[in-house]
Amino acid sequence: MSSTAIALACVLLAAAVMIFVFLIDADPSDSAPHRSRLDLLLERRDTIYDNLRDLRFEHRAGKFSDDDFERMKQSLEAEAAGVLGEMDLLTGSAPTPATRQAMSRKPAPRSS
């Protein structure tokens, strides 16, 4: 190969790199993590379980009355059952009777 051919190959390679770096726009979704519906449900389930743990701790610390604790606990448990039911549907697992019962109930309205 002659030195002219090598120089031409280097120039073409440099031009291709410049075009790629400066003229091709990356799609924002390429850098975003690809999360499935199941990933989102798993994260939501973990968050609900953390909230239940924190609720129990705060109840033991005396921050909530027994009535408030029970109301919030039931709401979180119903929400967790709904999430678990959705996970069962996505994965093709048969929902447990408790999950089916909880999914059939509407969550209690939240008071402000």
Overview in brief:
The protein has five helices and no strands. By secondary structure, it is mainly α. The mean pLDDT is 84.
Describe this structure in words.
There is one protein chain. The chain has a domain at 35-112. Helix content is 74%, strand content 0%. The chain is built from 5 helices and no strands. The protein has helices spanning 3-23, 28-31, 37-60, 66-91, 97-104. Helix 3 (37-60) packs antiparallel against helix 4 and helix 4 (66-91) packs across helix 5. It is elongated and about 85 Å long. The model has no long low-confidence stretch (mean pLDDT 84).
- What's the Cα radius of gyration? 27 Å
Q: Quote the distance from N terminus to C terminus.
A: 79 Å
**Mean of pLDDT:** 84
Describe the main β-sheet briefly: none
Count the DSSP helices.
Answer: 5
N-to-C series of helices and strands: HHHHH
Task: Give the helix/strand class.
Answer: mainly alpha
Helix-residue proportion: over 70%
Q: Name the overall outline.
A: elongated
Low-confidence segments, ≥5 residues, pLDDT <50? none
Kindly state the number of beta strands: 0
- Strand % is under 5%
The quaternary structure here is: single chain
Topology:
Elements: H1 3-23, H2 28-31, H3 37-60, H4 66-91, H5 97-104
Helix pairs in contact: 3-4, 4-5
List keywords for this structure.
112 residues; 0% strand
